[in-house]
């Protein structure tokens, strides 16, 4: 008899805990390509700036006997975006969560950390806290769509 009272309370507690865990994440749909969907956690979007010293390319001299003109280094400040994104692959039942740093001025992104989950159960299959190499994205890339979506959220 006590089990019948205890079971509904356990189910209710599990439901509340799962909804609290899901509340931290606010994934918004960005785009899809076939069976792959792209999402951004709008609660994780952060904007910052980075300032770097840039060394311009030397200007070749018109006279081959003269050395090229070396320009002084310049400071360059760019906006950087960090956000958590999800890539859902329906055909393989996988959800790839990535914490990504975007450099829109250079059309670059870097995955700083990632998790692979089974989509339907959210069971974690893999995890990496090792930053990956900086990669370029093109004008038709899903990452470009994600950056555009993030800027729309900023307005």
From TrEMBL:
Signal peptide from the UniProt entry: 1-23
Source superkingdom: Bacteria
Key words, A-Z: Signal
Keyword Signal (UniProt): yes
This protein's name: Uncharacterized protein
Species name: Selenomonas ruminis
Lineage: Bacteria, Bacillati, Bacillota, Negativicutes, Selenomonadales
């Amino acid at each position: 008899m006590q089990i019948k009272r205890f079971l509904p309370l356990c189910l209710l507690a599990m439901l509340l805990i799962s909804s609290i865990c899901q509340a931290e994440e606010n994934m918004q749909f960005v785009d899809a390509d076939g069976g792959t969907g792209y999402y951004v956690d709008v609660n994780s979007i952060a904007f910052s700036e980075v300032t770097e010293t840039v060394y311009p390319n030397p200007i070749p001299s018109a006279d081959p006997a003269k050395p090229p003109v070396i320009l002084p280094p310049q400071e360059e400040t760019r906006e950087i975006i960090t956000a958590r994104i999800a890539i859902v692959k329906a055909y393989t039942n996988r959800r790839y969560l990535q914490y990504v740093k975007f450099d829109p001025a250079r059309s670059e992104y870097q995955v700083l950390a990632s998790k692979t989950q089974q989509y339907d159960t959210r069971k974690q299959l893999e995890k990496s806290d090792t930053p990956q190499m900086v990669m370029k994205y093109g004008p038709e890339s899903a990452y470009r769509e994600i950056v555009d979506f993030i800027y729309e959220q900023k307005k």
